Amino acid sequence: MRIGIGLPNQVRDVRASVIPTWARRAEDAGFATLGTTGRFAYPGVMDTVALAAAAGATTSIGLLSQVLLATTWPAALLAKEAASIDGVSGGRLTLGLGVGVREDDFVVPGHGPRGRGARMDRDLRTYRSLWDGDPVPAGTNPAVPSGTRRVPILFGGGTPAAYRRMAHSSDGYIAGSAPAPLVAGAFDAARLAWREAGRSGRPRLVALNYFALGDPDRGRANVGDYYAATGAYQDLVVSGVHTDAASVRDAVRQFEDLGADELILGPCTDDLDEIARLADIVL
């Protein structure tokens, strides 16, 4: 199982200038992937900006959005943004996508929360059309350079529609941040949907958890603030923040036992020393 680390782009009032340095240090430490968590209606750094900054600051580490709220974007614009980041990085991006749940994130006229599932299905066709070099809608030029690849996609979400979309239109599944015993059912559902869709092989399975090693109280408070509008899920995420080496190691073992391909450990603060603290435990 690969071990990745999140960028602190979702931390309230993050020092944005930390992002490139964080990315370089994470790569130097030996983490497999840099992940982003983000939304519009929150004072952080946009997922795509954080990923682009990380792409320019590194040379080999993987890049993953976990998850980007795809239906809040016009499809053609997101397709070009993703292709551009993937190209700049040398083909290191994986798009983790979700349909979004918080109404205040839907800030683009005509892209509200109603009908977002059906819009997501349409948007997927737009992404692939543009990545394949088709002309932009109502135009004659392609949006991306020739030779652009189809960016790998993973899906999050826990509804039947989310599992169906994952199985038919992506490379795998990202579980929400939760303890391994609760993620087990989601992974099983993803595997089942994959088989029922007639897909060969198995889906890529990614797990997410949070850690706060230097300042646990501040870390838990930051996570609680980010998930304040999610009801009971807020308590689940906050209680699951790993604050010591034993807890982190136990999580790694449990997710390995579940068959996760990767565990991304997300920071709860923008303290750069958290990278070394985590690396000393898991790498």
Automatic annotation (TrEMBL):
For this UniProt record, give its keywords in alphabetical order, as a comma-separated list: Flavoprotein, FMN, Monooxygenase, Oxidoreductase
| Stored Pfam families | Bac_luciferase
| SUPFAM superfamilies found in the cross-reference section | Bacterial luciferase-like (SSF51679)
Query: Is Lipid biosynthesis one of the keywords?
Result: no
Enumerate the spans annotated as Luciferase-like domain: 15-239
Q: Which InterPro entries match?
A: Luciferase-like_dom, Luciferase-like_sf, SsuD_RutA_monooxygenase
- What name appears for this protein in its UniProt entry? Alkanesulfonate monooxygenase SsuD/methylene tetrahydromethanopterin reductase-like flavin-dependent oxidoreductase (Luciferase family)
Task: Tell me which species this is from.
Answer: Kineosporia succinea
